[in-house]
Specification:
- The chain is of the alpha/beta class.
- Helix content is 40%, strand content 26%.
- Strands 4-3-5-8-9 form a 5-stranded parallel sheet, sandwiched between helices. A 4-stranded antiparallel sheet has the order 10-11-12-13, covered by helices on one side.
- A hairpin with a 2-residue loop joins strand 1 and strand 2.
- It is elongated.
- The relative contact order is 0.11.
Length: 253
């Protein structure tokens, strides 16, 4: 049974599921103005291994969406200084591939239809089970990163996202959580130059990314990932772009 977390809202309980080691890492922005619910949702998502950032106001959420990239936006409609639907419209206006899940006390069909019509992937009416929220979040990332498939292949590399297992040919590679997360980030952004700052923000969140003076820890993770992949028989796809960052490509640079 999931662990219960009490949120002081109409004497109802919200629920946190036990950590699932098979979830796919994501950067999630949670926009919610009620602190108990915000804290409970954030705690639940962190239990799943996601990188979480929060915003209690429309203004702060808009600022974060402008500065950083997220895989998923979990947003309430009724905010003290704005409407969550406007945030969704702004996200979709820029053709973002970010997943969007609405959590709201508004349960009318018209509210749900409007949210889905402007680009939301899902809509949950409060109160809800965190087991259901986790399932919806996982479904969003699977659809957007792996076209709904649990298995993703690129040349000789195969990733089983439901089990967090990586193979080069028939040989399985044992990766740390950060090495796995980094590989997924590279695979889903292949042929794109990714700055060191983007890697930090994606894997560790904006707090560390903006204050880090040294990127030695990134070099260490990339060096270890590259070594494991090559030793298993994979091509060296991780190319260093001098003074900028990295590019995951089969081309020789």
């Amino acid at each position: 049974m999931p662990e219960k977390i009490k949120c002081c809202r109409n004497n109802l309980f919200y629920y946190i599921c036990k950590k699932d080691p098979h979830t796919v890492v994501m950067n999630i922005l949670i926009v919610e103005d009620e602190p108990p619910i915000l804290q409970a949702v954030a705690a639940c998502c962190r239990e799943q291994g996601y990188t979480i950032e929060v915003a209690e106001t429309y203004c702060l959420a808009e600022e974060k969406l402008h500065l950083y990239e997220y895989d998923c936006l979990i947003v309430d409609i009724m905010l003290p200084d704005g409407n969550g639907l406007e945030l969704i419209r702004k996200v979709k206006k820029h053709a973002s591939t970010m997943g969007v899940i609405v959590i709201s006390a508004l349960g009318a069909i018209t509210d749900k239809v409007e949210a889905l019509n402007i680009g939301a992937d899902d809509y949950l009416t409060k109160p809800f089970s965190f087991a259901e929220l986790n399932a919806r979040v996982y479904a969003v990332i699977r659809r957007r990163r792996f076209a709904g498939q649990n298995e993703y292949s690129f040349n000789e590399i195969t990733v089983h996202s439901d089990a967090r297992r990586v193979f080069v040919g028939e040989r399985e590679i044992v990766l740390t959580r950060k090495e796995y997360d980094m590989l997924i980030y590279f695979l889903t952004n292949r042929e794109r130059v990714i700055t060191k700052e983007c890697i930090v923000e994606h894997l560790w969140g904006d707090t560390m990314g903006l204050s880090a003076d040294s990127f030695d820890f990134i070099y260490t993770h990339i060096r270890n990932l590259r070594k494991k992949m090559v030793e298993a028989g994979a091509h060296d796809y991780i190319k260093t772009i001098y003074a900028v960052g990295y590019k995951f490509t089969s081309e020789e640079l």
